[in-house]
Amino acid sequence: MATLLWIIAVILVIAGIYMLLARRDILWGIVLIVVGLLVGPGGVSIFNV
């Protein structure tokens, strides 16, 4: 399960960086990065609540 959370977190953070740099959409970029950090096993996982 931890591996799956890492993969999801990495995808979300990469998507957030893409939104910030390529599409210039600051709000969605920040939201995706924060959600990626929260979902990751090192963060406050939504599956452990």
From TrEMBL:
Listed InterPro entries: GPGG_membr
Keywords, alphabetical: Membrane, Transmembrane, Transmembrane helix
Membrane-spanning residues: 6-21, 26-47
Protein name as catalogued: Uncharacterized protein
Lineage: Bacteria, Bacillati, Actinomycetota, Actinomycetes, Streptosporangiales
